[in-house]
Automatic annotation (TrEMBL), chains A, B:
Gene Ontology biological-process entries: fatty acid biosynthetic process; phospholipid biosynthetic process
Purpose: Catalyzes the reversible formation of acyl-phosphate (acyl-PO(4)) from acyl-[acyl-carrier-protein] (acyl-ACP). This enzyme utilizes acyl-ACP as fatty acyl donor, but not acyl-CoA.
InterPro entries xrefs: FA_synthesis (IPR003664), Phospholipid_synth_PlsX-like (IPR012281)
Record GO terms (molecular function): phosphate:acyl-[acyl carrier protein] acyltransferase activity
Compartments in which it is found: Cytoplasm
GO cellular component: cytoplasm
Keyword entries, A-Z: Acyltransferase, Cytoplasm, Lipid biosynthesis, Lipid metabolism, Phospholipid biosynthesis, Phospholipid metabolism, Transferase
Organism: Enhygromyxa salina
UniProt name for this protein: Phosphate acyltransferase
NCBIfam families, alphabetized: plsX
EC category name: transferase
Main location: cytoplasm
Length: 364, 364
């Protein structure tokens, strides 16, 4: 278990060569973090990073660089790349956490490679078979409430899952909801294509059977949740396999991005029929403000990337398209992850549910 | 094969006891259809329907009733219910099509039961293993174009699928895109969690391999499509298993419904800070108009329900929550389905691709 060094400020290692536009967004985020007094080290090619920082001519505010000469590409085969390139920025960043030189890691790189590196270098929490990526969806009626979000996992770490994995995701997700959103006894559901327990697949029915038959003190199992209910307060945690979770996440992103474009098109159509220039401008301005506000609430990156739950340390994944603000928010979230002892809380929760896992292990 | 009787107007059988609020939305839809001169028969309990129609006191406009004394509930086990209740409204409606007394069937009832009844009473198109439910998603930049929609199938008929099913969905979906939306050579994609062919599951990779290795004259295979791309013009047809398709559809519905609520909340927040009552009212009115316009374009029911593709006859499924307008639109779509010979076109397309299916049949 990664233990915080006493008397030292919490420090985050940021993979400087993860994002699609690397390393610019990372450098920018690091400077913003340093300005805010956050302890951070930038991991990547020292010459490039030094040049980038010199270019900016700004105060480096004590920003450290840890040298890592190579980079893992977005389309590389994850496990192979991690083994072949131990000196890649992503691997070195994870090494820093494994060596307890830092307290958390953030990368906007190849998420499969980050998972592989974390498994190889940090290992899993005791008793867990598969870590999961957790994402948080906004709720339509709780936009203003930072805690009013539904945790969905696995959002893509494990394309194929067994009943045991889903049951463990329930336990791990509940610990995350408790620590991150302050929900004392999270309501956990299994994502399915209907509310009735006969719905779903062999996988979901297996998980439903185990979770409904063996109540836990630390979370309340509320049965199946349908995909359209994820944007409401019907449950705090929804568990699914990484294939379905990834489809759900990307579809939500697509729908959320399509909507404002549709509204603008519709308003342009209306506007063209009622040519009142002044009124139109006011309406357009108000809608822009509204759209921006909604976008701010919706932006998954504003909430600090997606944590990789169940590896032995605080690891946060950013979107490849992440910009400086998104990466900065992920750094802040990763720091909070370490500060609040999420890894330890997950370890404890796993230990409390070993009997449940033994039952689940008997199912396919 | 269901053949249109010559010299007779196309007629639709409407299950009067399908929807959640049955039979009121169905009766209302039937009256609207009759007023529009559409030939339609209402299938259900004659006494109840007569009373409903008498209550309305309106001109029945030649509306026929076909008696069916019982009903299948929404949560009934589909196959069992269809066998146990041959006199249920849903079964009798399908019987009318099997007997060629009508040219198409519409039901807002239990979709599993409708599928089971169609399989049992109409059978499948020759050469097809599994029929699929097709749904159409709007594209952000083509709201005004009725043909600018992406066909997604299977949206829920087959929770578990083999490679053969996905390959057949590609052929069937392309035929639908051609007939319904006039796309001469539809671009077909397999839904996956990334664009690269190494992504996905054994199922998607199997379908990708078959479709990319054996080009068809009637459609263009364009590889994988990601869920967030479904709201764009990246492909005309996206194929997936019924589990994933159902999750995608319900998630899209949920996200699309959540968005306007989020915008209203955001605007209320902005409005409360700038209390200009008159301007606010104008803005609210414009946004309402815009939202309504978007909703009209988005509403899956406005586009006439979801066709069940690959059974031997025109069968259209409505949402259980469907109202009169949605059901009327489904009746119009079902009529068009029969008129344009969609079933025959699907049969021809299947016959043209038997070699492809033989290859796919060797994969799991």
């Amino acid at each position: 278990m990664v233990v915080m060094s006493e008397g030292r400020r919490l420090k985050v290692a940021l993979d400087a060569f993860g994002s699609d536009r690397r390393p610019d967004p990372e450098v920018e985020a690091a400077l913003l973090a340093a300005k805010d007094g956050l302890a951070l080290e930038l991991v990547g090619d020292r010459a490039v990073l030094d040049a980038k920082l010199a270019e900016r001519g700004s105060d480096r505010a004590g920003l450290e660089i840890v040298h890592a000469p190579s980079q893992i590409s977005m389309d590389a085969s994850a496990a192979r790349a991690v083994r072949a390139q131990p000196d890649a920025s992503l691997c070195v960043a994870v090494d820093r956490l494994a060596a307890r030189e830092v307290d958390a890691v953030v990368s906007a790189g190849n998420s499969g490679a980050l998972l592989a590196a974390a498994l190889l270098r940090l290992g899993r929490c005791v008793g867990l078979d598969r870590p999961a990526i957790a994402t948080s969806l906004p709720r339509a009626d709780q936009l203003d409430d930072p805690a009013g979000r539904t945790v969905l996992l696995d959002a893509g770490a494990n394309v194929e899952c067994k009943v045991l994995n889903l049951v463990q995701f329930a336990v791990v997700g509940a610990a995350y909801s408790r620590i991150e959103y302050g929900v004392a006894r999270p309501r956990v559901a299994v994502l399915a294509n209907g509310r009735e327990s006969v719905k779903g697949t062999a996988l979901t029915r297996g998980a439903h059977g185990i979770l409904s038959g063996h109540p836990s003190d630390s979370f309340e199992f509320v049965g199946y949740v349908e995909p359209n209910e994820l944007f409401s307060a019907r449950c705090d945690v929804a568990v699914t396999d990484g294939w379905t979770g990834n489809v759900a996440l990307k579809l939500a992103e697509g729908a959320m991005a399509a909507w404002p474009r549709m509204l603008r098109a519709a308003l342009a159509e209306i506007g063209s029929k009622a040519p009142d220039t002044e009124g139109e401008a006011a309406i357009a301005a108000a809608i822009d403000a509204g759209l921006q506000l909604v976008a701010r609430h919706l932006d998954p990156e504003a909430h600090g990337g997606a944590p990789l739950l169940g590896v032995d340390g605080a690891v946060m994944i950013c979107h490849g398209a992440a910009g400086p603000r998104a990466i900065l928010n992920a750094v802040i979230a990763a720091r909070r992850f370490a500060e609040r002892g999420l890894t330890e809380a997950i370890g404890d929760a796993l230990e409390d549910h070993t009997e449940l896992f033994e039952l689940a292990r008997k199912l396919p």
